[in-house]
Amino acid sequence: MAVSDFVVQRIYAPAPRRSVATRLLEDERWLAAVLLLPTVILLGVFIAYPFVEGVLLSVTDARVGVPGHFVGLANFVALFNDSIFRIAVWNTFVYTIVATIFKLALGLWLALLLNRNFKGKAFTRAFILLPFIIPTVLSTFAWKWMFDPTFSVINWTLFQLGIIHSRVNWLGDPNLALISVIIVNVWRGVPFYAISLLAGLQTINPELQEAAAIDGARPWQRFWHVTWPLLLPVTMVVVLFSVIQTFADFQLVYVLTGGGPANATQLFATYAYQLGIGTGLLGEGAAISLAMFPFLLIIVVIQLLYIRRVEVH
Amino acid sequence: MARVLIRNLNKFYDKDVHAVKDVNLEIRDKEFVVLVGPSGCGKTTTLRMVAGLESISSGEVLIGDTVVNALPPMDRDIAMVFQNYALYPHMSVYDNMAFGLKMRGIDRGEIAKRVQDAAEILGIGELLRRKPRQLSGGQRQRVALGRAIVRHPQVFLFDEPLSNLDAKLRVQMRVELKKLHTRLNTTAVYVTHDQVEAMTLGDRVVVMRNGLVQQVGEPLELYNTPANRFVAGFLGSPAMNFAPVSVQDGNGGLRADNRGFTIDVPAEIGPRLRPYAGRDVILGVRPEDMQVANGSHPPGLCFDAMVEVVERLGSETLLDLQVGEQTMVAAVEPTISAKRGDKLRFAMRPERLHFFDVTSEAAI
Amino acid sequence: MIEGAKWRRWVFFYIPLGIFILWLLFPFYWMLVTSVRPDRELYRPWMAPNYAPFWTNHPTLVHITDLLTQTLFIRWMANTLFIALLSTAISLFCGLLAGYALSRLKFRFAGALGTGIFITYLVPQTLLFIPLADIIRSFQLGDTPWALILTYPTFLIPFCTWLLMGYFKAIPRELEECARIDGATRWKAMLYIIFPIALPGILSAGIFAFTLSWNEFIYALVFLSSAEQKTVSVGVTSELVRGDVFYWGQLMAGALLGSIPVAFIYSFFVEHYVAGLTGSVKG
Lengths: 313, 364, 283
Fold this sequence. Notes:
The complex is a heterotrimer.
Chain A: H1 3-7, H2 20-26, H3 28-58, H4 74-81, H5 83-114, H6 121-128, H7 130-133, H8 136-147, H9 153-160, H10 174-202, H11 206-214, H12 219-247, H13 251-256, H14 268-278, H15 282-312
Helix pairs in contact in A: 3-15, 5-10, 5-12, 10-12, 11-12, 12-15, 14-15
Chain B: E1 4-13, E2 17-27, E3 32-36, H1 43-51, E4 58-63, E5 66-67, E6 78-81, H2 93-103, H3 108-122, H4 137-149, E7 155-159, H5 167-184, E8 187-192, H6 195-201, E9 204-209, E10 212-217, H7 219-224, H8 229-234, E11 241-250, E12 253-258, E13 261-264, H9 270-273, E14 280-285, E15 290-292, E16 302-312, E17 317-323, E18 326-332, E19 343-348, E20 354-357
Helix pairs in contact in B: 2-3, 2-4, 3-4
Chain C: H1 6-35, H2 39-42, H3 62-70, H4 73-104, H5 110-121, H6 125-138, H7 145-151, H8 153-169, H9 173-182, H10 186-197, H11 199-215, H12 218-223, H13 232-239, E1 241-242, E2 245-246, H14 248-268, H15 270-282
Antiparallel strand pairs in C: 1-2
Helix pairs in contact in C: 1-14, 3-14, 4-7, 4-8, 4-11, 5-8, 8-11, 9-10, 11-15, 13-14
């Protein structure tokens, strides 16, 4: 038996000598620095540095291939007077607000529907996420094709159902274009909202609902007084991410309309692209991109404050 | 010599919280020392400083003759058993036990031998291929022990290892731990809040409170001659009875007077208590030292009490007594018949009385 | 299930759910049908009497074969795969290390750095793309996959870090402490104990990062110019439109095939993807 091994008289052995590197990495602060270094470098070079560059660019009149001269706030003044820019600002806000409201409402509805147990639930849940998974540009092309004024299957369906009587130019009609783009954005975003809110719903104790039901609350009241307050934290986070992405959206509009017709769907991002890359006016393009920043900042701060308040509650 | 020397050890958290206050302790080679006290008393913090998991604010820890303050845990040649076992969930029992040895570059043959030996000692040979989640609480505990044993450390550290086990298992494991220590013959430092574990497992016991060491000594020493009221009340179950008494002159010696009872102070204690004449002190007497009075007890030590609650444990009977305005517990023979409302006469064993200073709470 | 009469179930549950599913999935069906529909049917105006949208009686593979043989589609797929895999790898690497540091080590700037990383996650690509184009050019990375492989992590790392932090925080401290007493350095404890236990999280982060980078568009559009370098999204957008004519058959075929890798990986790891998505929201 090995009992004897344990009874062997041992002299306490001195600790092994450790290299400088090992000793350094045992220290929490040094290890943290080493671990965070790659991230800090990458984010520093490709986010912080461009951000600063962007600010610098926006106060010059740089063009592609032509280094710029300092022009102060001239770009911003020009933008302020630019009617297209004003339209783009308006469009972006309408786009973001309307799309978010619909995504939230429909996403919530879908989440409530999915919160039941039914056959094929897991399957359904997996398929539902497809609009969010599939590369946006590719699925947007499908919508573009579906919206095509001559070949639209949507038009055909609506015609067959007797809802319309002549061709509807979803993307070419200035009055309809923004709505069409919003529809596609909502289509893409609902799954994200639905799955996230579903996860939030599933953390709510069903006994709370049952207790409310026994107390006599109707379904709508139960939702409003029990479910919704508990869902608020998750909702706020989802809305925060979504609003930022929607406000800065580019892909959808680029593919569907390119900003037209007649700037009816022009957004911050598409206008920045058009001026900066398309026309090569780097300074002004950078200014447009940067103009997004204060709005985004306000939105983020408001939402973060709200989230903090909801959590403290 | 794997002794552990703790010199003037202090731990501060955030400048205000003084968790460990100037602790001095020598744990001798092969000794099993228990640090015991209520939660927050600093026992775990002290242990973690010995282990190297907590930084030392001031003072020194020596293992053997080496000051280990600056050494990382891996270089101190210690092994620790955690309250929650801390088994690596993604590894089999074998790999759990082999992990430390692998980290030290010990060759595979030696690892296999050590793991097998430890598994045999602990009776977990069949579990080597299983994952922790497939084991019961007691089995996990053994694996945690095995993991510590295979390292052949100089010092074992235990952080409340039995707290997560159910009562019956705890008693069983206590006995096994004691047997294990005899077999392994290695220095051990054991932290617990359970005074039964302290009494049964420790060669010596260290009682701590609020970061300060209250008393160090062999279990019975602490039990019979507690240094202060806290130690007296902490060890022993049911706990010692405390009653405020005022020291009066009378009957040729001193008397301890409480509105519920008055007893003669035994002659041996008299001289110690004399400086307190005319003042209040605290009398301490353990439940088992309160007996139902029969003729053999000197009348000066007897008093009347009314029985409030009777708890029959089978091996003894606990009587909750109302003595004047005082509540006291007496542990008497199971053959004593008493019921609620009975008025009985009790006596305290004179050689088992304790007195404590009211302000300093130190034993007189 | 919903209590109550059967008609209620249909009105309040089955029908709405059905409509949702139909609405969300129809475009993909349309993609599929269009890809295999011959041109003469394809270019039939919807007002024409024999417009039969929902199926075709003469399915053809010509769009797909043309796509694969006459365009650089396969090259684009390879590019995108390469870029997605590498940027995911880089992001996971950085995210693992950063997530571990922020969630399990105590050091002075932990809070500030954590917030900083969170903030970078909120900076949209459309804010940075113009100055970044300049920077990429000056680094001479323009028109190479490296322009994307190095810039994609800017939005992948914050997400990975955040997600992994959630998983790391759930691992009890004692496991690491025990490993360190057993003889492991902090580094080894991280590698052998923490990372293996957090594997589900690593998988979730990886899957999510992969789909995010496959989905990215504006950086790819701006930084890449020559046709051979393009990713699927950019290639389909710019190269399949010749003059003003949209080759819808090929376009839809491209859209369909371009979606397959992501959908494929997604189908194996649905639970992980959903965990990644909800983890990022709940954390």
